[in-house]
């Protein structure tokens, strides 16, 4: 008794978990405002993901799936959940971990170590693709060439494409990338602010992930976290509004085609990575960055030289579409 | 890990900044064992006192990355003994000797 009284006193406020009514609640789910314990949270979280996978028929038995693994919290959770559900519900999937090494000294080392731990922990084969191998340039070398400004453009474009190239090497059917609700709400908001309707509908399509580095991303993130404080469901509501966004059928949408140079998906003649790479290799690293200068004029000239076919140039280069 | 015992009326807490890079604001030290005195002769220490103390004593640069107004920046999760502080009254959460407080930034990195 004496000891019990001395044991860490429970805080007055936290209540019992509303699911099991046994353990102490450890968090409040923003989605439902339920107070829930750690164990029950894992259970409902994993079950909801399973239901989403089944309802949206995300996978077919026998498929090979690459999990984009950065070593961060989102992709680590994804790797755990997918390997767990695959085993528990017999999805019959061949899962792989796919990591991108940008070649930034002292930056990726830690997270690649985490990915290697994931490889062992979940028994998933790991493939690492590097910028150096794919493009002939490490990020360190790119930064040396173009400076600290604008290098996010290279990194973002190259990373998204590196994932796809790695996926092709692994001969997988699909790539799964981990994003949290904050990421997606932020993307919806940014696409609305930018008036980018094509990507607004794509960004909430369930199997599509986009990567879009931008300076004002940080502001959008802060804004949605402020909203969440006032109304915890706000983040999920923003995602819902992105899902429900309908575009009038008379609106002309940019087509998604393929890059004439490398075959990667692109809504323009050359994909962004090829434009950026061309700039690097020709010693004109500003090519492909910023607005109409440089890229557009320069590339339009190239396009005209190559062919006089219809221009599929539909947007400014600064919009960073893939 | 060595724990320094506090003298009378000092509340000892362990702070940690495990993910998200918040430790960069405090000389890259992730775990801090600290003794904090309640303010102005008050008997109890609460999270509000603690944040004031952390801001004044641990944060070495860019305090705006950690705090906004009198509380943490939106997007920073605060756990007191493994429990989200939203359930224990946030700033009014009272702290006991040997409590463990964890700050996790969800703002950067996935």
UniProtKB/TrEMBL annotation, chain A:
SUPFAM superfamilies: Adenine nucleotide alpha hydrolases-like (SSF52402). Keywords: ATP-binding, Nucleotide-binding, Transferase. GO terms for biological process: tRNA wobble position uridine thiolation. Residues 65-217 form the tRNA(Ile)-lysidine/2-thiocytidine synthase N-terminal domain. PROSITE patterns: UPF0021. GO terms for molecular function: ATP binding; transferase activity; tRNA binding. Residues 257-287 form the Cytoplasmic tRNA 2-thiolation protein 1 C-terminal domain. One of its GO terms (cellular component) is cytosolic tRNA wobble base thiouridylase complex. It holds the Pfam family ATP_bind_3. ATP binds at residues 68-70, 74, 100, 178, 183. It comes from the Eukaryota. The keyword Transferase applies. This is Cytoplasmic tRNA adenylyltransferase 1. The lineage of its organism: Eukaryota, Viridiplantae, Streptophyta, Embryophyta, Tracheophyta.
TrEMBL record, chain B:
It comes from the Eukaryota. One of its GO terms (biological process) is tRNA wobble uridine modification. SUPFAM superfamilies: MoaD/ThiS (SSF54285). It is found in: Cytoplasm. The modification 1-thioglycine is found at residue 110. Pfam families: Urm1. The keyword Membrane does not apply. There is a cross-link at residue 110 (Glycyl lysine isopeptide (Gly-Lys) (interchain with K-? in acceptor proteins)). This is Ubiquitin-related modifier 1 homolog.
